[in-house]
Amino acid sequence: MTELRPAPASASVGPDDRVAVVMITYNRRDEALRALSRLRDLPEQPHIVVVDNGSQDGTADAIRTRFPEVDLVPSPVNLGAVGRNVGVRRVDTPFVAFCDDDTWWEPGSLRRAADALAAHPRLGVVTGRILVEPGGREDPINSELLNSPVQGPTWMPGPTLGSFLAGASVVRREAFTAVGGFSERLWLGGEEELLAADLATAGWELVHLPDVVVHHQASVQRDSRLRRRHGLRNTLWFIWLRRPIGSALRRTRDVLASAPRDRLTALALLDAVRGAGWVLRERRPLPPSIERRFRALEESQRHSTARRYGR
Question: pLDDT over 90 for what percent of the chain?
């Protein structure tokens, strides 16, 4: 197993106009303000866009008052992950760092991600190392990222990934917009897998760089039941949309076998089945080279302790 190493100090200081930050938020006023205070103090001084997904707790007004320099987009409705698409359209930097309202980037990390993307023109996504706050503990997902079984080209600056974590990733804006960004169908919850597959199919690579660091202090303001329902539904939709028939059947079996046998799982399955019509119309199986990457991930997905639908 490759040893995790601490993030080094950035090689240079001062603003970096190559990367902007897009944050989505919903009814997490205090968390969003905390994250923005951290982002405002970054040495890279990125342009920050916040898409407020129809919050009713005064989030938008508080951001206007405390952070007038932030580009605030107050949506009248909750757009979910599609809010990131809205934010990306507001910037013209070559690279965009995503940020959830309970995460923030470590100083120097945006510059390191931008350096990697600038050095490797076919690199589409850099996913960083996640430290859980308070305490700066390693997130269990870090080990899976570092030891990804996906085989990539020899020029990759780190482990090649099959998917990514939106709140801990920096994307190439050209690649993101070319494949259409996050799906409106999936809304929110495991929405990254479909986008990752479409990026890979279009020839873009995804990498994990442990010296790009993001901090995550999980908000207590979350509907864990809805999150699990949408996550399971979206996983099934991705499988049916992109995996060849044999893989789709196998992965459907494995995903349902790993999910709790409860009413929430039944509702998620019902949601997924109700979408079968549009799924069949929009189904585009992965090309063999990309399908091999997702097959390589199946063993770790079956035994992962970092991502289970019962959590």
Answer: 89
